Amino acid sequence: MQKCEKCGRSFRWKDVLFSIWQSYKPITCSHCNTKHTINFTSKFIVSFMILLLALVVIFYLAPANGWSKPATFGVALVVVFCITFTLPTFVRYEVPTTKR
């Protein structure tokens, strides 16, 4: 799990997950109140993983196994939730730089 760039305290898994669910809401360190935002690479990885694996289920696994539309939707939803719950372990946040 990532740590605060200023004080070194680890972010809570729950805070990172809720940040992702809330459109990448910034995380504020509970110890030093430093605000961290998700970096662009992490945003790309999150979007790419969710989209790619959902499309794999919809276009490859479902037709190969003869799943109905509701079953395909259910499996895709489960895959998206599983991916989402693992994301906090590897997304990266940084202290935003101030423009002068």
What's the structural blueprint in terms of helices and strands?
Elements (H helix, E strand, L loop, with lengths): L12 H9 L5 E2 L6 E4 L1 H26 L3 H18 L6 E2 L6
Antiparallel strand pairs: 1-2, 2-3
Helix pairs in contact: 2-3
Question: Which labels suit this protein?
Answer:
100 residues; mainly alpha; three-stranded antiparallel sheet; 53% helix; 8% strand
Largest sheet: 3 strands, antiparallel
Mass-distribution shape: elongated
Q: Order of strands side by side in the largest beta sheet?
A: 1-2-3
Please state roughly what percent of the residues sit in beta strands, choosing from under 5%, 5-15%, 15-25%, 25-35%, 35-45% or over 45%.
Answer: 5-15%
Low-confidence stretches: none
Q: Pairing-aware structural class of the strands and helices?
A: mainly alpha
* Average pLDDT metric: 87
Instruction: Report the order of strands and helices.
Output: HEEHHE
Number of strands: 3
Note the total helix count.
3
End-to-end C-alpha gap: 31 Å
Helix content bin:
40-55%
Rg (CA only): 17 Å
Q: Please, could you describe this protein's structure?
A:
Strand 1 (27-28) and strand 2 (35-38) form a beta hairpin. The chain has 100 residues and is mostly helical. The chain has three helices and three strands. The protein has a three-stranded antiparallel sheet with strand order 1-2-3.
Summarize the structure.
By secondary structure, this protein is mainly alpha-helical. The protein has helices at 13-21, 40-65, 69-86; strands spanning 27-28, 35-38, 93-94.
